[in-house]
Specification:
By secondary structure, this protein is an alpha+beta fold. Helix content is 45%, strand content 30%. Strands 5-4-3-2-1-9-7-8 form an 8-stranded mixed β-sheet. The protein has a two-stranded antiparallel sheet with strand order 6-10. Helix 3 runs antiparallel to helix 6. The longest helix is centred in the middle third of the chain and has 25 residues.
């Protein structure tokens, strides 16, 4: 029993030490988006039109990315749901609920404050693992290209740690624009779990549940 408890504890700690990661890379020939835990999760390659499922960095499954528009997919699902409902006869009307509007309005400021603090804490806990880019651009007139390059050099002198992540290459031959952007941000799972527990502690959960349930109308006693 003790060994089982130790194994479970080690596994839980190991999972909490992982990072929830968002990584993307956009360029003229690459459009990658990865969302997952650690190195495991789905990666969408929009340039190749392929989705990949990775486990510890290795691809274990792939599928073609649908070219259908999201709105068209939603319309098809709604129409299919309506077709299933038709022919089943009249549906029973559910008893209506009366909500305490004043009580909800009184809780909005406190809930908004707690959610705002939760959002700020998440931002503070987010780790920027990679943020770099390279932009090659120019204008039709060389003097405008020189002005843009001068602004870049001035910003680089003021904030080298931030602006230096993006390398600007002026194109003196004419109007053009091309670039590559690579970024990766992560949030440790233990921070996400802890901040979520703190948020639940700050929120009046019991009052929210009671107001969300409401009082049913049309229900007879006895």
């Amino acid at each position: 029993m003790l060994y089982a408890f130790l194994i479970v504890t080690v596994l839980v700690v190991a999972v909490l030490m992982l990072r929830l990661r968002l990584r993307f890379e956009f360029s003229s020939d690459k459009r990658l988006l990865f969302v997952g835990v650690g190195r495991s999760g789905p990666e969408m390659d929009y340039a190749a039109g392929v989705g990949r499922l990775k486990l510890f960095g290795r691809q274990i499954h792939s599928w073609p990315i649908s070219r259908e528009k999201p709105l068209d997919v939603v319309k098809d699902r709604v129409s299919a749901a309506k077709s299933k409902v038709i022919g089943k006869g009249p549906m029973k009307e559910k008893p209506k609920r009366a909500f305490d509007i004043r009580g909800i309005l009184r809780m909005i400021p406190g809930i908004g404050k707690a959610l705002w603090r939760y959002f700020l804490d998440l931002l503070k806990s987010t780790i920027v693992e990679q943020a770099e880019g390279e932009i090659e651009a120019g204008f039709e007139e060389p003097d405008l290209t020189g002005q843009a390059f001068g602004f870049y050099q001035a910003a680089l002198a003021v904030a080298p740690s931030v602006v230096g992540r993006v390398n600007y290459i002026p194109d003196w031959t004419g109007a053009s624009f091309s670039g590559t952007v690579r970024a990766s941000v992560a949030l440790p799972l233990y921070r996400l779990v802890w901040l979520t527990l703190v948020l639940l502690w700050r929120l009046p959960i019991v009052r929210i549940i009671r107001l969300a349930r409401g009082d049913r109308k049309g229900v007879q006693d006895g």
